[in-house]
Design brief:
The protein is an alpha/beta fold. Strand 4 and strand 5 form a beta hairpin.
């Protein structure tokens, strides 16, 4: 695993919530930082580099056993890495995880491991990490707040996993979910960006349950 590389924005206030930005597979913290464009100015942001190196300056959050299908041992190790990072760097912060593509699966893993460990989890154009050692039974996300966006035209993520994610989050997870489907490529659409912005503003105004 790589060491921690992170790009922090200035904190707008001492009470500002922290949005942890998680890039897609094969990118790095600079790609994660691009997600900051979708985050309200009232948040501080930190873009993390995934702990698993793919070589040539490319990183990820876990080894795959197929697109959108994390290897359980690798995912478990990265979750331990993330818990350690948060204990060191943001032990008393109100945190929302915002992940794109492979980062969305990792954000889903964070909230599945402990639904109230974060104030919210945004899964953008990625899947719930099914069959990866985490409980995904009905009600496994009781107490969680989740935002999910996906595209009906997504050319990257497997359709069966996207459909399964859509059904699970909305029907079975037990989470408080805002979900929308958009058209277009594997990228955050304007519609999804605006909806995420509103959801984060709502999260900021709600009492913390973590």
């Amino acid at each position: 695993m790589s060491g921690t590389h992170a790009l922090w924005s200035p904190a707008p206030s001492s009470e500002a919530p922290l949005a942890v930005l998680l890039h897609g597979r094969g990118a790095d913290e600079h790609a994660g930082q691009a997600l900051a464009a979708h985050i309200p100015d009232s948040y501080q942001t930190v873009a993390l580099r995934g702990p698993v190196s793919l070589g040539s300056g490319r990183y990820t959050w876990f080894e795959n056993q197929g697109i959108g299908r994390p290897q359980p041992e690798s995912l478990d190790a990265s979750l331990a890495w993330f818990r350690d990072w948060r204990t060191r760097e943001a032990p008393d912060r109100r945190v929302v995880v915002v992940g794109f593509s492979g980062g969305a699966a990792f954000a889903g893993a964070v909230v599945l491991e402990d639904p109230t460990s974060v104030a919210g989890a945004a899964l953008l154009y990625g899947t719930v990490p099914f069959d990866a050692g985490l409980a995904t039974e009905p009600g496994s996300l009781d107490g969680a707040r989740v935002f999910h966006a996906q595209s009906v035209d997504d050319e990257v993520m497997p359709k069966d996993l996207m459909d399964r994610t859509w059904h699970y989050l909305r029907m079975d997870s037990g989470a408080n979910v805002v979900a929308l489907r958009t058209s277009g490529p594997h990228d955050v659409s304007h519609e999804a960006s605006e909806a995420l912005h509103r959801w984060l503003e709502f999260i900021e105004q709600r009492p913390s349950e973590s």
